[in-house]
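Reading a protein record of the kind used here takes only a little practice. The integers have meaning only within a learned vocabulary of local backbone shapes. With that in mind, consider the following protein and its fold in token form:
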Amino acid sequence: MSDAPDSLIPYDEIVQEALRAVVGRVLGQVAAGGGMLPGTHHFYITFKTGAPGVDIPQRLRERFPDEMTIVLQNKFWDLKVEDDRFSVGLSFNQIPSTLLVPFSAITAFVDPAVDFGLQFQAVVDDEAEPLDPAENDSPEQADGPAVEKADDGSNVVTVDFGKKK
């Protein structure tokens, strides 16, 4: 193992920010197109519910205290995209809700229609429990997110820069 010098340039942060901009651009194109997804495209978006700037209903925060996955496919509305965040209306157990999610809170973005996905480095809790995807009234909910497809030749990009302790 070599003793590479610590970089004074935060490459990992720069790459993470650039890849999250991909998510913003894709969502922005959907919003600009009237909120209609083209073809069979649909998205699984996983984010940290406790991240700064995340605004979700309290009942969802209690149910998903660490992380949740939403599905943008058939039943979503009012998708709005800004430079650093997006908001969207979704139904959870048939209760309409609006979620505000900064791009910095996203840990995964997957479009299973074309085997495309991005995973982002996240701050890991000491004893994080495995979480189920959010049940936002989608027919895809039983299948769960497809982020695990990284080993089967799909186009999932995992960015994980090891941090020295």
In short: The first helix runs from residue 11 to 32. Confidence is low (pLDDT under 50) at residues 123-129, 138-155, 160-165. The domain at 11-119 is CATH 2.30.30.220 (SH3 type barrels.). Helices lie at 11-32, 58-63.
